[in-house]
User: Which sequence fits this backbone?
């Protein structure tokens, strides 16, 4: 049986390993360490929360949820920024359970919206999300631009 709960500081090493595995899956390398993850989820001004899925005492997945503000509506928007399930536990509904737990958290906090995205090349995740009746695909979200903040 898999249980989902809010992560604690004791879960940070496992979350870090899952972040590294998620980055590797996408051909990236994590540019963050355990101390930075601690700040994100447990620091004096946390910008997110983490849900962790455990099979017994073994972490098998996690969802990192970050927030932003819809200033004009005075409401929080939440984004499932990371969703990861270990290879051996995929296809067992753990990702869906993490999304459902994130949804319950969003409702409890009065969030305006909960979103989730994936890499355009991750066809498995895209198909899974499209098959979930509780998710609606956003098709008019662009164009979007970013401001270059580097000094180089």
Assistant:
């Amino acid at each position: 049986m898999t249980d989902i709960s809010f992560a604690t500081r004791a879960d940070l090493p496992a979350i870090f390993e899952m972040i590294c595995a998620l980055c590797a899956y996408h051909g990236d390398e994590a540019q963050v360490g355990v101390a930075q993850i601690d700040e994100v989820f447990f620091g004096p001004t946390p910008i997110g929360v983490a849900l962790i899925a455990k099979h017994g005492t073994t972490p098998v997945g996690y969802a990192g949820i970050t927030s932003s503000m819809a200033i004009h509506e005075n409401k929080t928007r939440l984004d499932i920024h990371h969703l990861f399930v270990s290879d051996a536990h995929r296809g067992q509904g753990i990702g869906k359970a993490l999304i459902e737990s994130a949804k319950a958290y969003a409702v409890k906090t009065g969030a305006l919206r909960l979103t989730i995205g994936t890499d355009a090349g991750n066809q498995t995740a895209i198909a899974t999300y499209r098959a979930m009746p509780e998710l609606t695909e956003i098709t008019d979200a662009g164009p979007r631009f970013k401001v270059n903040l580097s000094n180089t």
